[in-house]
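Two folds, back to back.
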Amino acid sequence: MDVDDGFCLPDELWERIEPLLPPDKPRSRGGRPRMDRRVAMTAVFYILRTGCQWKALPRALGAASTVYDRFREWAQAGVFTALWKQGLCDYDQMKGIDWEWQSVDGCMTKAPLGGDAVGPNPTDRAKSGTKRSLLTDAAGIPLALTVDGANLHDKKLLADTLRGVMAPRPDPAAISQHLCLDKGYDFQDIRALAVELGYIPHIKARGEEIEAKKTAPGYRARRWVVERSHSWFNRFRRLLIRWEKRLDRYQAFLHFACAIIVWRAAGVLG
C-alpha cells in the first residue's frame, strides 16, 4: 500500500477493531465484492490522522465515495463509540481508571461549513464554531465528551458531560470522586449539580492554582490534565477544524480519536 507507514492502521489496533464491526450485508445479486474492511478502516484512520478531505484520499486507499459510505455505515452502527468503550474497558483492566480526581473543560474549534451543534464563536469574531466539553480521569484519560455550539457557555454542557461517562462509574460512596473545574464553572447551580451527582467540587481560578504551586511544596495541579488531553486531540488533524456538517459524523471521528488515545495510554499502541 503506497501510504506512509505512520498513517497506516497498526495491527494491534485492527485486532481490537475487527470484532466490533457489524457483519457485511448480504448481496442479493452479483457484482463487485465489497471493499475490504481493513482497507476501508485504514482509509478512515488516514483521514483522521492527516486531516485530508475525502476527495483528496490517496487512490491506494480506495475510492473516496466508497470509503465515505463505509464510514457513514459504521458511524450509524455506533462502531466508533463502541471502540471508545472497549478501549476504556481494556485500559481499566491494564492500568486502572483513576476515578478519584476528574476534570472537565471545554475547547472551541472552527466549523466553517456550519451544521448541527454549531454557533457563533465569541472569541473568533462570531465566526461559525463548535465546542467540545471533555471529562477526564486523573491521568487525562477521556471518559465523556459532549459537543454543542461555540456560543454555548461551558456550564450548559456540564450536566450532559458528567452523565455521559463511557465506562461504568464506581459508587461515590465507595470511592471519593473529586471534580476539578476552572472559574468558568463557578456558579452555585454547578456546585449543586456536582454534589447531586456524587462529586466533591473544586473550582479555582488559574491564578490561584499557580500561586498554590509556588507556595505549597509538592502541590499537584489536578485540573490541567484535561487541557493536556484537549491538546492530544489536536494531533488528529481532522479535528483541528470541523468539516463535518452532521453531528454524528463529527462525533464518530472524535470517538475514534478517544479510542486511540486510550489504547496508547494503555501501552497497546506505540
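---
second:
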Amino acid sequence: MIQPSGGMFEVPLGEIWRYRDLVWMLAVRSVSTSYKQTVLGPFWYILQPLMVTAVFSFLFGRMAQFQSDRIPHYLFYMGGLVPWNFFSETVTKNSNIFVENSQIFSKVYFPRFCMPLAVVLSNMIPTLVQFGLFLAGLAFYLLKDNEWTNPSWLIVFTPLVFVQLAALALGVGCIVSAMSRRFRDLTYGVRVGLQLLMFGSAIVFPLTRIAPENRWLFFLNPVVPPIEFFRLAFVGRSLVEPWHLAMSAGISFGLLLIGLIMFHRADRNAMDTV
C-alpha cells in the first residue's frame, strides 16, 4: 500500500531531506526536457525575457508614455520581470502537481513535496540567465554614467528576495495543487489570475504613478515589496520601506506553512480523487 507517513498535520521534513538526491534529479530532468525537440532549445531562456522587455518598453514606455521614474526602460522592466517570472513560473508549475504526476504517484512512494521543491530548483536556471541579462544591461548604463542608475550595498541582500518569492510561490502553488485535485478549474484560474496580478505588481508602471493614499493597496500584494527592493538595490530608486518587506515576508512564510499542511493532507488520499 502506497501511503505517506506521519500524521495529518505532520510535515515529514526529515524524510524530505533524506530524498534530497531525488529532488536534484527531478530538477535536472525538468531543465533538460523543458525545450527538448525545439529548434532554439535553451536560447529561449534568453529570447523570452528580451522579447517581453522589448514589447513592454515599446507599448508602455514609448506609446503609452508610462514614466519609469527616469530609470532606463530596460532596467525598469527587466528588474521587475526577473523576480516576477521566477514567482509566476513556480506557481504555475506547482498548481497541478497531483494531476500531472498521478502516474508516478500511483506506482511508487516518495515524499510528494519533492516535486514542488524540484520545480523551484529548475526555475532557478532561467532566472539566473535572465539575471545575467539584467546585469549586462546594468553594466552598460553604468559605463554610460547614467545618473539614474545607482546600485547600492543592498545588493548583498537580493538573494533573500528569491528566497521569499520561492516561499510565497511554494505556498500558493501547494494550496492550489491540494485543491485542484478536486476542482480542476483552479488550474486555469491561476493562470488568468497571475496575468492580472502582474499589472498589480508594479511591473509595467512605477508606484509613483499611484496616488499616495492608494499605494498601501499595492503593498498588500506580497510580490510587490521584494520586486521593489530588487529595483532599489540595483538601480537605487523605489518607494519600498522596511515594514513593507516585513509584512510581505510574514504573508509569504505564513502561506508556505498553510500550503505545506494542505499539501500533506491532500497527499493522504490524492490518488483516490485525482
